[in-house]
Design goal:
By secondary structure, the protein is an alpha/beta fold. The protein contains 9 helices and 14 strands. The strands form 3 sheets. An 8-stranded mixed beta sheet has the order 4-1-9-10-11-12-13-14, sandwiched between helices. It is globular.
Length: about 325
């Protein structure tokens, strides 16, 4: 059987994003861009040289066209994205408040992405892929997107794809209890779980009953549910990869000046997926993931600073030594 043309398939809500450098005020300026977890991951994986398809749903409006143009400009396949003539593309406003802390406002209720259904994904699934990447954010958008995630996960597992799940919990979208109820039924189809240390309890059968359970017990529970890899993101403390029967692998966070932390988790996922596609070992996969996350936090914007493949080694280069600038002696004009 020939390998599928697409290596990674993902879908979810991409939004028009307005970003201000300070509090929103009359007459102030705002930067216009695009945002969305799966959008960020798709761009990140494509920049690392892999073939990616984004099969989300947008409105039939200018923000939707901007999203699709931007994805195509980054080399992401959009031929299986769908548009909704009766619902708008979602939007968000991010106000920078103090240092890198921001206040976010969403307009995504009844958006086109919230109306995505399992049938919308059939062409993308039938086209095939090696990896299906899912996030908890899409599951939180409503019954239709959750059904689409479950149908896609079941299809991918049945056809031998690798299914990755980034928990990516957003308290603004749903409660911890709702997240647990929705995400746990996905576990039989999932091969790789990616979560921050405080998100792991959301996947536990005992969530809400014993929230102080040890992390080792939570990971063992996931292994018992059939998960093959558990990746734990720890922010400035790096990340760990747990495999059944093996000692955990650890990668330290890369030391870079922090400009904007938004999108770091998505950048991490992009690097990890790239490492999987390149069949890197556990430590090397984590190293690539923390490297792509470092590029993200060192740049303003959710995805704009993500590295291309030939830039991955930039953080490993020794610091340049500046030579003193020696100017040629100026000749005096004859008197």
């Amino acid at each position: 059987m020939n390998s599928p043309a697409v290596e990674v398939l993902t879908f979810g809500e991409a939004m028009l994003s307005l970003q201000t450098e300070g509090p929103l005020g009359a007459g102030g300026s705002a930067r216009t861009t695009v945002a969305g977890a799966e959008f960020n991951v798709a761009v990140g994986v494509a920049r690392l040289g892999h073939r990616v398809s984004w099969a989300g749903r947008t409105g039939r409006d200018e923000p939707g066209r901007l999203i699709l143009r931007t994805l195509r400009g980054e080399g992401v396949v959009t031929s299986h994205a769908t548009t909704d003539p009766q619902a708008p593309t979602g939007a968000m406003l991010r106000e920078r408040r103090v240092a890198d802390l921001a206040r976010v406002h969403y307009w995504r209720s009844r958006s086109a992405a919230s109306r995505q259904r399992p049938e919308d994904l059939v062409p993308a699934l039938e086209a095939g892929a090696r990896i299906l990447h899912l996030t908890g954010i899409t599951c939180a958008l409503g019954d239709g997107p959750l059904a689409a995630v479950r149908a896609a996960a079941a299809y991918a597992a049945e056809h031998g794809w690798t299914v990755t799940l980034d928990v990516n919990h957003r308290a603004r979208l749903w409660s911890e209890e709702a997240a647990t109820t929705a995400l746990r039924p996905l576990l039989p189809y999932v091969d790789v779980v990616i979560a921050s240390d405080d998100e792991l309890p959301l996947l536990s059968a005992a969530s809400g009953e014993s929230p102080d359970g040890g992390e080792a017990d939570l990971i063992a529970e996931l292994f018992g549910a059939g998960i093959g890899e558990v990746v734990v993101k720890r922010g400035a403390d790096g990340a760990d990869l747990h495999l059944p029967g093996a000692a955990p692998a650890h990668a330290a966070a890369r030391g870079v000046p922090v400009a904007d932390t938004v999108g770091a988790g998505d950048a991490f996922c992009a690097g990890y997926l790239s490492g999987m596609l390149d069949t890197l070992g556990p430590a090397a996969r984590l190293h690539r993931a923390t490297t792509t996350a470092a590029f993200a936090v060192a740049s303003n914007g959710d995805w704009e600073g993500l590295p291309h493949r030939d830039e991955l080694a930039l953080l490993d280069a020794p610091p340049r030594q500046c030579r003193p600038l020696i100017l040629p002696e100026r000749r005096r004009a004859p008197r």
